[in-house]
Amino acid sequence: MAQAHVLGLPRIGAQRELKFAVEAYWRDEMAVTALQDVGRRIRAANRRAQRDAGLDWITVGDFHWYDQVLSTLALVGGLPERFGAAPAALTLADYFAAARGNAQQSAMEMTKWFDTNYHYLVPEYSPQTRFGQGTEWLFEEVAEALIEGANVKPVLLGPLSLLYLGKEKGGLRDRLSLLPELIAPYERVLARLKAQGVTWVQIDEPILALDLPQAWRDAFEPVYRRLSVVAPSLLLATYFGDVSEHAALLTTLPVAGVHVDGVRAPKQLETFAALWPNDKVLSAGVVDGRNVWRCDLTRARAQLVSLAETLGERLWIASSCSLMHCPVDLSSEVRLDKEVRTWLAFAVQKLAELVLLCRSLDVAEFAKADVRAAFVADATAQAARRTSPRIHNSVVQKRLATLTEADARRASEYPARADAQRAWLKLPALPTTTIGSFPQTAAIRTARADFKRRAMSHLEYLETMRAQIRLAIEKQETYGLDVLVHGEAERNDMVEYFGDLLWGFVITESGWVQSYGSRCVKPPVIYGDVYLPEPMTVTWSAYAQQLTDKPVKGMLTGPVTMLQWSFVRDDQPRELTALQIALALREEVAALEKAGVRVIQIDEPALREGLPLREGDWPAYLAWAVRAFRVCSSGVADDTQIHTHMCYSEFHDILPSIAALDADVISIETTRSDMELLGAFEAFEYPNEIGPGVYDIHSPRVPSQAEMERLIEAALARIPAERLWINPDCGLKTRDWTQVDGALTHMVAAANAVRARLATAQARAA
Questions:
Q1: At what angle do helices 137-147 and 68-75 cross, to 10 degrees?
Q2: Tens of pLDDT, residues 735-756
Q3: Which of 193, 358, 598, 692 has the fewest CB atoms within 10 Å, i.e. is most exposed?
C-alpha cells in the first residue's frame, strides 16, 4: 500500500507563537529558555497533527528559528566568518546576529526562495569559508520525535543546493570548489542521524528544477555516492518544477527514493513511473503545497491509480513541496465567507487529503463509508466552486474585451515627461524620499483592531489615523525629506489592505504564512474576477497632501505583486487575473491624480520572483507582467510622476523588462549587497531615474551618515546625478520611531553633504 508523508509543515505556530516569542526575545523580554519552550511546543503540535491525520511518516527538522538555509549553515558550521562565532559553540544569539546584523556587522543578504514569497538568507562563501561541527538542534528535535515512537523522517537541505543558493565573496571564483570540504559535515550529520535510529532522511535539492549548469549536475552522483555510504535511506526531494530532464540521473543516483512535484509538473509523474527502478521509492507530490484550494480528490486519485499499479508499495504520496507556504489550519477561520471556505484547505486539512488519497488506492479502503463520503463531499465542493455566480463579473469581462495596446502606453516618452515633472516638482539634486510605510506602532495596531471589532466608531478611527498621518508629515518635514508619504498607518499589509477593498478577493482571519524571520503575512485569496467598487486610497493621500506644500506620494501595490502575494485562483491563467487587477488599479491611479496627488508609487517588489524557474519560459511571463504594470500606470498626464519599488531581487538578467515598465522613477534594495546591484544598471544604461537604497531597514541598526555618504558616492559612480534619488531599501513599518528618526536624519544629512560636494565640483569645473 502507498504511504503518506509531507515535505514539511508551517513552523510559525497556529497563532504565530514563534513570531511573538522571537520578537520578545529580541527585545530582552523573554529568556532564551522560554523561547526554546515555545519552539518545543510548536514542534510537538506539528508532530501531533501528522499523527492525528494518520501519516505514515512524521517529518521533523522543518522547524527553524529564522530560516532553513541559515539553520543548515549553522548545522554544518558555515555561518559567515565575519560574525566570528565558533561553529561548535554557536548560540541562538549568534544565529540571530547573522540574520539581523549587530553593532559591528550588517545582516546577511536576503532574497526570494525560488519563485515563492518566502525570503531566505543568502550564504556567503569566500576563500576563508570553513565548515565545522555546528549546532545540535536537529539531533535534539529528532530525539523529541523518536521518544513518541513514530516513523521519523528528518528533512535537511542538501549540500549542492546549500552551495548553489549562496554568493561568492572575498575573491572566491567558484563556490562549487568548497564542495569537498562541505561533504564531511554532511557525512557526520547523516551518520549521527542513523546512529539515533533514523531510517529515512528527506534531503532537499530544489535546484534541480532550475537551469542547472553541467558542472553542478555532474556533482550529484559523486556527492550522493559518498553520503549514501554513511546515511540512512535517503529520499532526495525536488519541487517547484519539472525535473524530468534529470530522469536518467535520478533513476541511477545512489539514493533510496526521489520526490517529484506533481502539481507544478503533473506529466512528469508518468515519465518517472515508466522508467522507475524496482529498488527505489517514488514520492508523488499531488497535494498543492503552495495554494489554499482543496485538492480535487477524484482527479488526484485518477492520477495516482496508474502509479500505484506500477509502483505498488514503492509509491509514497505527499504534498508537492513543504506546507510552510500555506496557512496552518482552516478550522480557525470562523468568520470567513462560508461559501468560499468550502473551497479551501490549509496545511492541517492537506494532511487529511493525503491520507484519504492513500486509503483510496486500496480497493477495500475506498469502499468504506467514510472514504466514500469524503470523496462525495469534495466533488460537491469542486462543482459548487466551478458554477458559483460569484466567480465571474460581466463588467470586468467587458473591460478586458475593450482593452487596447494604447492603454499600455504613456502619452509621451520619458524625456518629455521628465521635463514636465521637473518644472512643477522643482526638486534639488539627489532628491530624498522614503518607500512608503512608517512604524506600525502598538497604538496604530490597537486602533485598527478596535475599529475592526467595532469597539471604535468610524469617526474616532478616522481621527486616529489622521493624527498618525499628521505625525508622519511633521516628522518628514523635520528630517528635510523632499518627497513625502502619508505613512500607511491605515494599512495592515501592502497586499491585504487592497485585497480587502477589491471585489474578487476574500481575507482570512488567521491565514498567516512566514515571509521571513518573524515577519508573517496574511495573503488574500483571489477567488473571482477582480473589480474596484470605489477608490481605496484617495481619502488618506489627499488629506496628507493638504498638510504640506511638498509633494506627497500616493502609494499602491502593483498588479504582479498583488498576484504573487495572494493565493490565486487556479481556474484561469494567472496572466488574466493580473490584467484584471491592473484595470482596477488604473482606476485608482486616475482617482489619485484627479484628487491632486501627482506623484504615485506603484510597488512591484514581486516582479522578479514571478519569473518561471526555467529561462526559456521567461519571455512570455515578462511580456504579460510588463503589460499589466503599464496598463495600471499609463492613464495619467505627462507631469504626473510614476514611481515603482522593487526589493530582494537580482535584476541584471531582466533589466530590459524593468526598463520596459517605463516608470519615471524606480527604487531598489541595494544595501545588503553593498550597491553590487548597481553594476548591472550601469552596464545596461537604465534610461529613467533610480533610487538605490542607502539604508537597510530590515536591521534595527542605525547606519551612520558617513556610511550612507559612501553608498551615495558609490551610486554616483554609476548613475548620473540628475537621475539619482536617495531613499531607504524598503518601507519602515517594522522599525520603531527612534530608529527611523536617527536613520532618516542621517540619510538627509548624507544627501545634503554629497549635494554640497557636487555643487562645489560643478562650480570649479565652470
A1: 100
A2: 999 999 999 999 999 999 999 9
A3: 598
